[in-house]
Amino acid sequence: MTSIPQRELRNNIGDVLRRAEAGEEFTITVAGRPAAQLGPAPRRRWVDDATLQQVWATAPPDADRLRADLERFPADLGDPFG
Length: 82
Hints:
There is one protein chain. By secondary structure, this protein is an alpha+beta fold. It has helices at residues 6-11, 13-21, 49-57, 63-71; strands at 2-5, 26-30, 33-38. The chain has a domain at 2-38: 3-Layer(aba) Sandwich (YefM-like fold). It contains four helices and three strands. The radius of gyration is 24 Å and the shape is elongated. It starts with a strand and ends in an 11-residue tail after the last helix. It comes from Conexibacter arvalis. This is Antitoxin. Antitoxin component of a type II toxin-antitoxin (TA) system.
């Protein structure tokens, strides 16, 4: 993993980000100490039509079962929406 000082990152951010997007990983240092790691973000994963249709066809949770599950929470927890 390439080590890169904070100042170099600041001065060359575009180049460093292009390299990270291409798969390179960096350790960002501040005063010679490792402070952060920078690397490529995960790529998007697309869901195929059949899987998406299956998700939309799934029934919502049973209201009575949901109510029973919520009743198991401590009484001092309030409704964040009400």
